[in-house]
Design a protein that fits this description.
Layout (H helix, E strand, L loop, with lengths): L6 E4 L4 E5 L11 E5 L3 E5 L3 E5 L10 H4 L2 H4 L10 H7 L7 E5 L5 H4 L9 E5 L2 H6 L11 H7 L3 E5 L4 E3 L6 E5 L8 E6 L5 E4 L7 H6 L9 H16 L3 E4 L4 H7 L8
Parallel strand pairs: 5-6, 6-7, 7-8, 12-13
Antiparallel strand pairs: 1-4, 2-3, 4-5, 9-10, 10-11, 11-12
Bound molecules: zinc ion.
The site of zinc ion has 5 residues, from helix 4.
Length: about 260
Amino acid sequence: MSATIKHLWALDAPTVTMDNGIMGLLKGGEQITFPLPAFLIEHPEHGLLIFDTGIGGAGDPASVYGPAAELYKIDFPAEYALDRQLADLGFTTADVTRVVLSHAHFDHTGGLHHFAGATGYIGSGELRYAHTPDQHVAMHFDPRDLEAAKQIDWLEIPTHGEHDVYGDGSVVVLSLPGHTPGSLALKVRMPDDTNLVLTGDVAHDHDNVTFCAGMPADADTVGAIESLKSLKLLRSQPNTTVWVNHDPEDWAKNRPTGRQVV
Ligand SMILES: [Zn+2]
């Protein structure tokens, strides 16, 4: 039997509002508001790990994103800043010794600057791709965050591989490429011995998983479909919850009492 984590917080997250065509192929025409999350995990012996870091610009998103902040109705109260939430929970940013980055799109890298000196886990080739992306996805990478990423000591997860972070089965990084070349998900063993899979952006809503259909900003459409098949298989396993991180319904369902999940 695997060890379990001690706590998981789905930290209070900024939201954006835009056309749902962003979420999946064959969608569009409806405005949706969805979260840009960061998940904090406490291991009973090895301390804190963060999975993704959301966007930057807490309290004043326009200071970072300019007119896009208003265009996409970014809602990011100052007290949602990662350092402030960590302090609120009795921690400092330096207590977070490990960072797992699902991928390098800007809505996941905005808080990386808080974690200089941490050990990072990233998909093989992701940072290289982020610096020289294909043109149709270039706007999803933020050079300021890539600069901040240089302060983290990255370990690369081989493509289609997995890595048991603590060697006890409690937190396992899964390489599921396609959305980006190095896209990752995280499998967490919860205190009640169930599995929780945090999808990163391998899927953007549950329809992506159900129909194994990707989204417009996938770097590799064919690869993304294969990874969605893997997620669908995980979702079919007993005692396993797949939490699609940008899916607003999952956000409401999986954090009924706010940021502390367990
Ligand atoms: Zn995203």
